[in-house]
């Protein structure tokens, strides 16, 4: 069975979906929705889905090790964020800032804390922090999972490692006092007052060389290389002979939902149809397991298309049904 992980598919804002044109433009997706079995899910983020799919015995994935497998130092991945706090809660939000400004901010951060760590630029506007001494907190969720969520309990975990807690607090103080943030405060813009750090968890040597792994996300490709020995982009799927041992991670919908930038969901859904759903649904005798990181997953077998009595179901209708059931 091919595992297609599409987080956010059942979390789309229904009011932004023009149902009739969407149904017409995405026939393969709506064939899947009509005939597939809907199965309840307990995994509500894509890291948990990957851990379940691979059968790993851990709570978080080793992104840092995947991105720099030859470096044995303690390391983690991070993104600058706006951390909004009140008496009881803390929530993580993305920040819109120019490339030059964020590069200067991270360079100044790296220079100031060079005795504690080294900071390296990664693709996709991510950074890696290579720590010289202290040990960071483990089992933190991916940045995309943390965005817009309450993260108070994760921040409290930092206190279990006093050296890391001290360093992290000093970094937050540095960010707050930086000239970029002082200017943003004067202009009424949210400041870059924290870092969301994750991916420091250990890799335990598992190998799945019989699996094919596809994703357009750089960090997810690195995970594929680590666990499966190879990975490829979604466009490269067209030239591959897919087997039931295939994992496809498609994050474009989730990135649209979590971004502050204006995005056209219809455009993203059309790309999803053309690059993933349509070619997968056309495969003869191939079972498809669509994992949504929502309340329900979709299990499809080609023989299901003969159940002609099943009523058509639009994406909007399914999202409304799932929301009402929760």
Structure report:
By secondary structure, the chain is an alpha/beta fold. A hairpin with a 3-residue loop joins strand 5 and strand 6. The strands form 2 sheets. It has a 6-stranded mixed sheet with strand order 2-11-10-1-9-8, sandwiched between helices. Helices cover 38% and strands 17% of the residues. The model has no long low-confidence stretch (mean pLDDT 94).
**Approximately what portion of the residues adopt beta-strand conformation?**
15-25%
Distance between the termini: 28 Å
Helical coverage, percent range: 25-40%
Task: Assign the structural class, choosing from mainly alpha, mainly beta, alpha/beta, alpha+beta, or little secondary structure.
Answer: alpha/beta
Q: What does the oligomeric state look like here? A: single chain
Extract low-pLDDT stretches: none
Question: What is the molecular shape?
Answer: globular
Number of E-type strands: 11
Q: What order do the helices and strands follow? A: EHHEHHEEHEEHHHHEEHEHHEEH
Write out the strand line-up for the largest beta sheet, numbering strands in chain order: 2-11-10-1-9-8
Summarize the structure.
The protein is α/β, with parallel strands linked by helices and 326 residues long. It is built from 13 helices and 11 strands.
Question: What's the arrangement of secondary structure elements?
Answer:
Layout (H helix, E strand, L loop, with lengths): L1 E4 L13 H7 L1 H9 L1 E4 L5 H9 L8 H5 L7 E11 L4 E4 L5 H14 L4 E6 L3 E6 L11 H4 L5 H6 L4 H16 L1 H8 L7 E5 L13 E4 L2 H11 L17 E4 L2 H7 L6 H17 L6 E4 L4 E5 L14 H11 L1
